[in-house]
């Protein structure tokens, strides 16, 4: 297995830590401590600037961290779904790379699946089974 880059390791560690309840509690404690120091600093512009700057920097960095971990998780999930489609008998292999389709192609697939859902609902109303794998055409 290839070695993990420092950024992958660090972002995974930070993302896990940021999502814990203790992290939220600590952030709340920092805000409460900041509020408590207001009278000490006479609610000055510098006092306000401290919290504004800190939260802006943390938010800015977290955007990139979250995006990185989200991209990685989404790609891994997509690969797993692609493998399930590939390994399922009767599945449309054209769906494997669906995330690379244009909006028009996605819309065409969606319309076909909506039509299948409506037909299945009609079948249920008439007492027929709603299962099966009717051909919808592999081309969008």
Describe the structure using short key phrases.
2 domains; single chain; 0% strand; 140 residues
Would you summarize the structure shown here?
This protein has four helices and no strands. 68% of the residues lie in helices and 0% in strands.
Report the uncertain regions.
none
Q: Give the DSSP E fraction (strand runs of 2 or more residues).
A: under 5%
Order of helices and strands: HHHH
Count of folded domains = 2
How is the quaternary structure best described? Answer: single chain
Shape: elongated
Care to count the β-strands? 0
Number of helices: 4
In round numbers, the mean pLDDT is 89
Largest sheet: none
Helix content: 55-70%
Radius of gyration: 25 Å
Give the N-to-C terminal Cα separation: 37 Å
Q: Assign the structural class, choosing from mainly alpha, mainly beta, alpha/beta, alpha+beta, or little secondary structure.
A: mainly alpha
Structure description:
The protein has about 140 residues and is an all-alpha fold. The protein has two domains: about 5-85; about 95-140, no CATH class. Helix content is about 70%, strand content about 0%. The protein has four helices and no strands. α1 (about 5-20) crosses α3. About 0% of the residues are buried. The mean pLDDT is about 90.
Which helices and strands, and how do they pair?
Blueprint: H1 6-18, H2 21-36, H3 45-87, H4 103-125
């Amino acid at each position: 297995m290839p070695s993990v880059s420092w950024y992958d390791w660090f972002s995974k560690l930070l993302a896990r830590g940021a999502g814990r309840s203790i992290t939220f509690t600590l952030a709340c404690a920092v805000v409460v401590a900041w509020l408590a120091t207001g009278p000490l600093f006479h609610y000055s512009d510098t006092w306000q600037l401290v919290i504004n700057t800190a939260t802006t920097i943390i938010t800015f960095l977290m955007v990139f961290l979250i995006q990185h971990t989200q991209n990685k998780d989404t790609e891994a999930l997509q690969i797993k779904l692609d493998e399930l489609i590939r390994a399922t008998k009767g599945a449309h292999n054209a769906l494997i790379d669906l995330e690379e389709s244009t909006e028009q192609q996605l819309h065409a697939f969606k319309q076909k699946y909506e039509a299948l859902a409506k037909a299945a609902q009609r079948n249920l109303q008439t007492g027929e089974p709603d299962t099966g794998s009717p051909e919808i055409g592999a081309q969008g």
